Amino acid sequence: MAGPRHDLTQGPIAGTLFRFALPILGGNVLQSLNGSVNAVWVGRFLGEQALTATANANNVMFLLLGAVFGIGMAASILVAQAIGRGDLKQARSVIGTSATFFIGLSIVIAAIGLPLSRHLLALMDTPPAALPFAEAYLRIIFLALPFLYAFTFITAILRGSGDTRTPFLFLLLTVALDIGFNPVLLFGLGPFPRMGIAGAATATLIANAVSLGALLLWLRHKKHRLWISRHERGLYRPNLAVLKSLIVKGIPIGLQMMLISVAMLAMITMVNKHGVDTAAAYGASLQLWTYVQMPAMAIGAACSSMAGQNVGAGRWDRVHSTAKSGVLFNFLMTGALIIPLILFDRHTLSLFLPDGSPALAIAIHLNPIVVASFLFFGVTFVLSGVVRATGAVIPPLIILAIALWGVRVPFASLLQPRMGADAIWWSFPASAIVAMLGSVAYYVFGGWRKSRMLRPGPNEVAVPTEVPGQAPSPIADVARCDEPATGARGP
User: Fold this and answer.
1) Residues of the chain with confidence (pLDDT) below 70
2) Best label site of 40, 289, 379, 459, fewest CB within 10 Å?
3) CA distance 119 to 93
4) Where are the transmembrane segments (predicted)?
């Protein structure tokens, strides 16, 4: 099939990684801008209770879809490795099997979650004043989930194949539709009904459904090399070997997302107990923290795809250079965001909270404590993305579990009687440092280089593992990250 080819196994490491990551970063900016604009409409015009409601509802959504996200990530890595080997047949087999499993599971989760929305929110100790808003919002979000995550799945597959430009363009369409429909449905402009907070969720549903349909039509029209035509529908029948790999590797990746989501639920539950003002301050601060995380998340996702293709090609020199470049870019880009968000936090936080609100003072206090921790978590994002590209998914899960549930949640819970809400805020940098140290140690000394996503068939050649020896520390050696990789390309 025709379609753009994006080879991440050639060219200078740092430049290739940066150009590949830029559309991902742009997509993250668009998504965060979308969330921030919606938060401005909700927070300033519907009040603190409505803003608290969206924060609680979104945490539930990310928790329930964590496992499905892991399947999508596993599929993306499998596609990247297959593309790196030049095995288009296996890449398409992975896409067919994972699409059936991924989308089917998202529909099941949506069907189960819809009638349980109020119960899930009640379990989080959602403030009573915010509960009706949160339920109205979450029920529609559940209806949107199959569209939202089918769109996310396809963009992850395209990223694994080396294409980040196409996902960015269609994400731009999604955000434009969401931002455009939000005030229309929120306030009932023109012929549209006034839906209140439910209008914000309905705008998300419409935007993702339309963009998903447009993306599928574009792939079909372009006869993209990864498009499965109607004559190839047999590829949607699950391949047991691929399905096993998706489950065995995808579940631990999904559990990482669920660990993060459950930890955030634990944090917001503790925050809720301090009242609506503290909860609203936390929800507004989350908007800023989303922007701070964007560079590291973009670089981590780019590193995973780039490392996956080079693992498939047997280019281990490029795998390690990718890790070093990713860590360097994290420090530069994340650090460049942290400083202004601390210096000008009053102006940015006031976008989400009404003037004179007591929540604003609380947000200004907690923001500088938490925001710097994302510099350390950025290292974890990057290194986890690299080691997962080989199939090593359990150690990053363990490291994250220790950081979040061995440090963050106990720290916040046990020290609240002495420190009050400050215990919650200081638990973020404490856990971030632990996660970074664990990730660096595993990258340098762990056995991730010997892991595999999918065992070769009887007629296939196994991808060569790295020559024995420890990898250099990506932090200690970042100064050499622009050095071009050398060596022959693997089979």
Assistant:
1) 1-7, 45, 62-67, 454-491
2) 459
3) 39
4) 60-83, 95-116, 136-156, 168-189, 195-219, 240-268, 288-307, 327-344, 364-386, 393-411, 423-445
Question: Do the domain assignments include residue 250?
Answer: yes
Q: Beta-carbon neighbour count of residue 182 at 10 Å?
A: 23
Quick: pLDDT tens for 328-350.
Answer: 999 999 988 888 888 887 777 88
Does the residue 257 lie in any domain?
Answer: yes
Please count the other Cβ atoms lying within 10 Å of the Cβ belonging to residue 203: 26
Structural domains of the chain, count = 1
Domain with 290, as residue range(s), is 13-454+468-480
Sign of the CA dihedral with 122 first, then 356, 283, and 179 last = positive
**pLDDT at site 484:** 38
The answer to the question of residue 400 being in a domain is: yes
Residue 59 near residue 146 (C-beta atoms within 8 A): no
Residue 306 domain flag: yes
pTM comes to: 0.75
For helices 13-46 and 165-187, give the axis angle rounded to 10 degrees: 0
CA end-to-end distance (rounded Å), the chain: 22
Query: For residue 52, what is the enclosing H or E element?
Result: helix 48-64
Output the pLDDT for position 476. 45
